[in-house]
Amino acid sequence: MTQDTSSDGFVYLVGAGPGDPSYITLRAVQCLSQADIVLYDYLVNPRILQHVRPGVECVCMGRHGVGKIWKQDEINAECLRLAQQGLHVVRLKGGDPAIFGRTAEEVTALDAAGIPYEIVPGITAAFASGTCVGIPLTHRDKASAVALITGHERTGKDESAIDYGVLAQFPGTLVFYMGVTTSRHWTSQLLEHGMAPSTPVAIVRKISFPDQVTLRCTLEEVTSKFEGDNRLRPPAIVIVGDVVSDTSVQSWFESRPLFGQRILVTRAADQAEELAAKLSDLGAEVVLQPAIEVLAPENYDLLDEVIGRLPEMDWLVFSSGNGVRFFMNRLRECGHDTRQLTNAKIAVIGPGTAAVLEEYHLQADLMPDQYHAESLVEALSGSVGGKRVLLLRASRGRDTLQVGLQEAGAVIEQVVVYRSQDVTQLSISTQEALERGVDWITLTSSAIARSSIALLGEQIQSMKSASISPITSETARKLGFDPTVEATEHHLDGLIAAILEHQQ
Ligand code: SAH
After folding, report:
1. Residue nearest to atom 11 of ligand 1 (CA)
2. 18 lines ligand 1 (CB under 6 A)
3. How high is the pLDDT of residue 5?
């Protein structure tokens, strides 16, 4: 509606799409990145909240069993209150805000108070079914129309506004929202009004989420799927009609190789993204549980002094991407830039470290064939005799490089550029995931393996595990845990390849 021209309060009613964090609009991302506060529905995938600025409060409007469940009046009042304080409020809703999203009520309250607003569309749950389930809602031969129907009419309505006689004859696809607990009612209404008991039906729970479930049955069987011990729980949509039996479109979503696999990614928080994204793209449900924390060194005295003498060095050796980042940041903080490195050659332990170096427009002069310390020593040993070699390292880890290069005749200096520390408590989302069952854990270094085993205790024994290298596996074995698979190539893609091979 009105354009935002001032610093006055403003409300954005934003659709978050069906769940997959990439199924949202650019406008939604813009609104989230400018929000002062976000009020979000429980259906919204919390990963979408990654677009808000650091420190912005995101309040969940309620999820059964967790915290307060806000009533619609309270939500309206809270939006108003915040907007009246001059804040930009994002009211984030699952799917499309205007499909069973009570947008009319929220907007009426805003209008009455003279608060400007904008409505940002989203992909409604049903409309993701072509993509995620392989059921296109319309079909040239089987359905020329679609009806979106609520299975949960407002309580207190004397008469149903839904004409089941008309729906039973509807020449197209019916999609029921909020129809789980009420399935006995609406299915019997359709049957009573003459719809065939054998009409094909698909129930789709958590559409576009990594734990999406699709169940196909007939109209007369729907209720049995929502009752009993193993019943499907909300949120689910129910698709009714001939399109369900059409098999021309495959569900690429559920066919992805890691679909249905819940995987714990245990890398440090700021390093987990690449692995998490690759696993998600393959269909896995990723649970981030850093096993180690990466911190700045306790003091920079030694590093600063060495940075001043960098032109004396013949080789700089980095054994992790973190090492590169902390070192380069400190170099800059000390008032230098990469010209300070012009005399030295640079060795890295593997492609991950080389890639971080590239971010600073620096190329590694040497990388071993196998990405571990022993190999790096071997690769360097011919060229470091009598040379000054600076090892930029973590506060803990093996001394292989130092000892090996010293034996090769190098004049070694080592400086701690970052500290690594074990995480000792599981996050709430990890605890929830453990209750549901975790399929895999990734062990991407010895330190991570050691900390993960301590952190998860006995529970780790029930998971399959993927180790990045023989050294990591050996560390785990010494602690009584034998990894299920080990990467042949010791980098993230190698680790993923090992998991995929096992899953086949
Ligand atoms: N505005 C939302 C609908 C809100 S009503 C939209 O456009 O999608 C809540 C109902 O939507 C749920 O009971 C369920 O029927 C459906 N729903 C929303 N998200 C869903 C999802 N990811 N998977 C299955 N059903 C979903």
Report:
1. 177
2. yes
3. 40
